[in-house]
Amino acid sequence: xxxxxxxxxxxxxxxxxxxxxxxxxxxxxxxxxxxxxxxxxxxxxxxxxxxxxxxxxxxxxxxxxxxxxxxxxxxxxxxxxxxxxxxxxxxxxxxxxxxxxxxxxxxxxxxxxxxxxxxxxxxxxxxxxxxxxxxxxxxxxxxxxxxxxxxxxxxxxxxxxxxxxx
Length: 166
Fold this sequence. Notes:
The chain is mostly helical. The chain has helices spanning 5-11, 14-22, 25-35, 40-43, 48-70, 73-79, 92-104, 111-136, 141-165. The chain has 2 domains: 5-72 and 108-165, no CATH class; 80-107, no CATH class. Helix 2 (14-22) packs antiparallel against helix 9, helix 5 (48-70) packs across helix 9 and helix 8 packs antiparallel against helix 9 (141-165). The protein is elongated, with a radius of gyration of 20 Å.
């Protein structure tokens, strides 16, 4: 399976793009600011280059982490990761993996399937993490709903693109 790094670098932009829309005051920005008791003025003066740069870096980490979660075939490849015979095209391991990939290499490799796994990942990974942090920070339901909605759309789109094109 060939890794398409262009897609990884492109999908890392999705959190920024969706964030520009999602947290716009005309969408959920005002509700989000109200849920954390800040104003637009409170947010001014931030180092936006650093924030956007780190957001992109975190998007890269997220894209790489999503690959094995949305592409089932990566699990099969990982089984042979430390098998030194896999490099020999005539070894039993190599022939087995080749046969498997020839038969199932494109199974469940659709945008729709990637979105499905992206949303599931949001529910089973992001929600417990964000929910726990929100509880200790004494944040309300609206705060959690705004952020989980954002992550469901963001990770769903990232998963869909990765599953379809990587």
